[in-house]
Design brief:
The protein is an alpha+beta fold and about 280 residues long. It has a single domain, classed as Muramoyl-pentapeptide Carboxypeptidase, domain 2. Helices cover about 40% and strands about 15% of the residues. It is built from nine helices and six strands. The strands form two sheets. The protein has a four-stranded antiparallel sheet with strand order 3-4-6-5, sandwiched between helices. A hairpin with a 2-residue loop joins strand 1 and strand 2. Helix 2 packs across helix 5 and helix 8 runs parallel beside helix 9. The longest helix has 29 residues.
Length: about 280
């Protein structure tokens, strides 16, 4: 496999609306130092890519390369604060949640180095071949729609998963390519955002539009978002185990069953109360 090298960077993190709003409103969250804007113009389409794995890999690498590797994540921190109780002051520890900008540019190169590969061979080569074909057509369609897709994460081995921040699966069970999912060559998930916009806020808005487009049209390409807004950038095959587990018929039935049980549980105290108040017939 012969792939280009280089990097570009951005991602709007999980819980899209909340974190995008935080990026826009919280003065503590600052834009990283300005970098040259990536070239978001897609390479010219070629029918050869339908049968050429090398061409598909080259295009997917260009989509990965154009995306900044920056995320807004939640970090919990303990602080000391003084409180008054019954007229007495005392110092207690309180856990607060902050939104901070994380630059994870180094993570894929570090994992690739440990694996003895180039970043391109690691990130793109580690994905399932059939899934790459679907991604090629999906990303082409997104490009044609003017939504400028950027891939922030492709294949991840156990080490790469262990250093991932934010919403994530257990180290060995990630569908990005964890050892329990088949490992290298079997990655069945990627994270995608939009690189359209001059500021992080604009790119967050563009990403939300892109994710909505995938929800509406992704099935035409065999791809969907298993977690919806719980992990907005994450996409996977709609006929895969992950999607079936989170969005399939069984998952929907389980959700309805849990909702029904919850309603019954809430009703029990009322029934019990009535039993105590109403006199029993003699």
């Amino acid at each position: 496999m012969r792939l280009l090298s280089g990097f570009g960077f951005f991602v709007c993190g999980s819980l899209a609306v909340l974190l995008c709003a935080a990026a826009a409103a919280d003065p503590a969250i600052k834009e990283p130092p300005a970098q040259p804007e990536p070239n978001v113009s897609p390479p010219e389409a070629s029918d050869k890519c339908i049968v050429s794995e090398e061409c598909v890999d080259q295009y997917l690498w260009s989509v990965y390369e154009r995306a900044r590797k920056v995320d807004t994540i939640k970090v919990q921190e303990q602080i000391e604060t003084t409180v008054k109780k019954k007229g007495k002051s005392r110092t207690v520890k309180k856990t607060v949640t902050k939104f901070v900008v994380e630059d994870f540019t180094w993570k894929d190169p570090d994992a690739a180095k440990k694996a003895g590969m180039s970043v391109a061979e690691y990130v793109i080569g580690g994905m399932d071949r059939a899934f790459k074909g679907r991604l090629y057509h999906l990303f082409r369609a997104l490009d044609d729609a003017g939504l400028a897709p950027g891939m922030t994460s492709g294949f991840r081995d156990d080490y790469r998963q262990s250093i991932t921040s934010g919403t994530k699966a257990a180290t060995s069970s990630s569908y990005h390519g964890g050892s329990l999912r088949g490992g290298y060559g079997h990655g069945l998930a990627v994270d995608v955002v939009s690189v359209k916009g001059d500021t992080r806020t604009e790119r967050c808005t563009s990403s939300q539009i892109l994710w909505k487009w995938i929800d509406e049209h992704g099935k035409e390409y065999g791809i969907g978002r298993p977690y919806l807004d719980k992990d907005p950038p994450h996409i996977a095959p709609i006929d895969g185990a992950e999607y079936a587990d989170k969005r399939g018929v069984n998952a929907k039935l389980a959700k309805k069953e849990n909702a029904a049980k919850s309603r019954v549980a809430k009703a029990k105290p009322l029934h019990a109360l009535r039993g105590r108040i109403e006199p029993k017939p003699l």
